């Protein structure tokens, strides 16, 4: 049996070894990277979290935590840090943890398995560093270690997946309009910086306790100015992927994000998932059932599409309006203009699909946006532990 003194000595040796490895990693960083750090790197002995302490007992009740500070990047002054100024208190998925900054801020910390010198080359870091918008989650800081780096992000309390599937949320059509408008506003900021998100889905659209919609998870984002085509081995969730992506299109198109928004808003109207396909082929068949034959030059010469269409029965050809008829939507949710908005967003013809500016000018928004999403969240005294930031292509052993 290992004595208590020996355990204590092992912990001290581990901290010394870890501190040495961090220092070695720091020395290997290029000068251009070091120059961007606004503060000296402290290597002070971290204070351990005692079992049974107040820090250990902090619960998931984030409504009792600071409500302003963790949305203020000025509270976290260092853009890059090796110091132990964050403490982990909950796991929110395979890649993200909830932590507390020493200032009292609540943060989300996303793991990236890259060397510290490569962190600035990640598309996610490039995108979030260049985008500053209320409806896009903020990158507050980077925490660097020897082998695993952390993106320190705003923590948000809910995601849209919770709103869609939990009846406890009493959604009305005006709430959906507000969410759609916020989503498009965030996408405007993303597209203006020449990025495509490429992975929009309900659990990548977060809500703060104040009802602010935030787009997150830029792990598959790409610059639309990139010269090389995207890899088809890493694509978005098939239920929210544009049909051209399912059929092998490698061109980076921003209006593919608009398709994803259309599916998300459609699911909010139905309070259910639109698709349940297990493969790309099955998803294309379900899209044919919903929308009918795909329109556009891309599909005429696409062998995959022609093969699937030839084998398609056509029994449910173009059943979109039947799916969204009033009896399938809650009475307080049905909005004819909103359903038409979803239909316009889900155009299979790439060239006829709306841009983000055209979507914001849609007649659905002409009467104004009045819904307050914050009202919905009062149904919970405590926020849900939603599946935010999870990535299907991550190593499950992380």
Automatic annotation (TrEMBL):
Top-rank lineage group of the source organism: Eukaryota
GO cellular component annotations of the record: nucleus
Residue span(s) of domain Protein kinase: 82-365
Name of this chain's protein: Protein kinase domain-containing protein
Keyword list, A-Z: ATP-binding, Kinase, Nucleotide-binding, Serine/threonine-protein kinase, Transferase
InterPro entries: CDK, Kinase-like_dom_sf, Prot_kinase_dom
Alphabetized GO MF terms: ATP binding; protein serine/threonine kinase activity
Listed PROSITE patterns: PROTEIN_KINASE_DOM
């Amino acid at each position: 049996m290992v004595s208590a003194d020996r355990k204590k000595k092992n912990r001290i040796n581990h901290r010394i070894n870890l501190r040495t490895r961090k220092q070695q990693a720091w020395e290997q960083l290029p000068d251009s990277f070091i120059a961007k750090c606004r503060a000296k790197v402290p290597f002070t002995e971290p204070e351990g979290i005692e079992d049974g302490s107040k820090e250990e007992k902090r619960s998931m009740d984030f409504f009792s935590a600071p409500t302003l500070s963790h949305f203020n990047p000025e509270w976290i002054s260092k853009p890059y840090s090796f110091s132990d100024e964050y403490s982990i208190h909950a796991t929110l998925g395979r890649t993200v943890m909830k932590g507390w900054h020493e200032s009292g801020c609540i943060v989300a910390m996303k793991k990236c398995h890259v060397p510290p010198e490569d962190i600035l080359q990640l598309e996610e870091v490039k995108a979030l560093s260049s985008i500053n918008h209320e409806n896009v989650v903020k990158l507050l800081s980077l925490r660097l270690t020897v082998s695993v780096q952390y993106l320190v992000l705003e923590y948000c309390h809910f995601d849209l997946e919770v709103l869609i599937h939990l009846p406890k949320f009493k959604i009305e059509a005006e709430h959906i309009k507000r969410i759609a408008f916020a989503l498009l506003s965030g996408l405007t900021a993303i597209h203006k910086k020449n990025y495509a998100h490429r992975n929009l889905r309900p659990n990548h659209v977060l809500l703060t306790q104040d009802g602010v919609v935030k787009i997150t998870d830029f792990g598959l984002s790409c610059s639309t100015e990139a010269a090389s085509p995207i890899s088809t081995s890493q694509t978005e969730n098939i239920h929210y992927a544009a049909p051209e992506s399912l059929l092998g299109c490698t061109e980076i198109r921003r209006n593919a994000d608009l398709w994803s928004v259309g599916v998300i808003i459609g699911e909010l109207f139905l309070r259910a998932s639109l698709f349940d396909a297990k493969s790309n082929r099955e998803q294309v068949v379900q899209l044919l059932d919903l929308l009918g034959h795909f329109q556009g030059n891309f599909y005429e010469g696409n062998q995959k599409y022609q093969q699937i269409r030839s084998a398609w029965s056509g029994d449910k050809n173009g059943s979109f309006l039947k799916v969204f008829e009033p009896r399938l939507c809650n009475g307080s949710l049905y909005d004819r203009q909103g359903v038409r908005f979803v239909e316009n967003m889900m155009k299979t013809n790439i060239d006829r699909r709306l841009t983000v500016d055209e979507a914001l000018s849609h007649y659905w928004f002409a009467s104004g946006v009045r819904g307050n999403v914050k009202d919905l969240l009062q149904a919970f005294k405590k926020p849900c532990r939603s599946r935010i930031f999870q990535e299907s292509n991550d190593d499950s052993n992380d």
